[in-house]
Amino acid sequence: MHNSHPHEAGEDTSDLNEEKSYQELHRPSSEFASRSDYLDHELTIMKPRRWKLNLPGRDFRFEWEDLVPALAGTIGITVMYSAVMSSYAAGYGLDANFVIENVRVEMLVSAILFVILTSGFLNPRANLAGNHGPMIPLIGMIAMAGGHPLALAILLGGFGLILSITKGGSRLVKLTGQGVAGGLLAYLGLTGTASQINSLIEWAGKMNVGYVAFVVLLVNIVLYAYLARIGKRWLSIPLCSVAAVIIALALGAPFEFKTGPGLPNLNPMYWWGSTETGWKLGLPNMQHFIASLPFAILAVAMWSPDFLGHRVFQELNYPKKAKNVLMDVDDTMTACSIRQVVGTAFGGGNITSSWGTYMIPAAIAKRPIPGGAILLGIMCVIVAVVGYPMDITVWRPVMSVALLVGVFLPLLEAGMQMVKDTKDTQSAGICIFASAVVNPVFGWSLTMLLDNNGLIGDKDRSKALSFVDKVVIPGLAFGICFVAMAAVGMLPGVPALVPAFR
């Protein structure tokens, strides 16, 4: 029996397995034909406790594969936090010291309270609360419109909690058809890939080492292809990042360490209590809340497609019986909402969402959330306190390569993998088209409405849906997204409805 394939063993004793604990069902990796079989078995026997204490050994284990998403997530979040704080600093006229200190605040608060405590120990089905990448380009607009980071955080957290309590997030995910999801992932993957390649080429040009970008990308294309060929794609972030550092330095790309060890100020009053310290904005007033409102609605509207992408990635890479370890969309929304308010109260400026640079490599490496989350939290604390690793992770060759191989290329591949027949191709094509016209939220919400009504895609699927699932929920999702985008001037060629945003 010990030599049987884990899937077969699970199927033969499914009733008994329901009663047995993870500890009782765990078997050493030496009893399996391959490492992949062992990891599959681990995923199928786990039974995470929801909002209760989960313990290493009793409820989950640490495996060396957990280091990969932990490292990828640390690189990814340092990059994203730095991008957010730099955008805010430019919008509010703050200096480079503000950026470094604020990144440190976010890394410490999110790592200790929400990565280690929440996703590691209290609810391993809530994906880590990370960064909301699609909102980064809007940060300059938030500042110009008179928005306030704390007002935005309070609104975003409130809307997110309403959506999670009403289970609206998971409902939207279920109503997103295969073709729509595939098109969304493909679009996000394609545009992100192009953006990172352009950023690396542009950086190399500015540094007068234009050839560095080409050589780094060429070597990483070959390395990524080789890792995919031998089934070790989950190693792509650490190996490709190391390759990028070695090649860029060897070819003469400039690099220096600037950020020394230190601890940030974690006193909320330092950040928000005065116009002389921290953000230099003081506490928000009613005008700040009004100016921040459309952006908060838009950020929460973007959560569902973001969460959908990460959950789909688990479904594509985990064995079919591993239902217990898939991220719970509503629990992830709860964690993100609370993390948004708490993190910003401590002084942070991050806009949060499901942590893609952690989840995607974790899914590829066939690992559940908790082990890697705890390792990631520890790494983030080390990076924030020591300081020097922050310089390496935000160095353009490392940043672009890590995001390319760890997030955008896997997203592109997953999107193409989901589009399996003509009906799905039609929905995917319209989703990509509509996303290119405005943005992915517009593309997702419009295509979901058309797809659920049978106007495109699988007409049989549409017939099986109720009126609420077919018209009411997709219609509301599209309407809310459309009005929020129109209010802040995100519809091409259409002036902002709210004068303050013009």
Automatic annotation (TrEMBL):
Ranges of Basic and acidic residues composition bias in the record: 1-10, 17-29
UniProt keyword Magnesium present: no
Pfam families for the chain: DUF3360
Region of interest (Disordered), residue spans: 1-29
Domain of life, per lineage: Bacteria
Keywords: Membrane, Transmembrane, Transmembrane helix
InterPro entries in the record: DUF3360
Segments traversing the membrane: 67-91, 103-123, 135-163, 175-197, 209-227, 234-255, 286-304, 369-388, 394-416, 428-451, 471-498
Name listed for the protein in its UniProt record: DUF3360 family protein
Origin species: Zooshikella ganghwensis
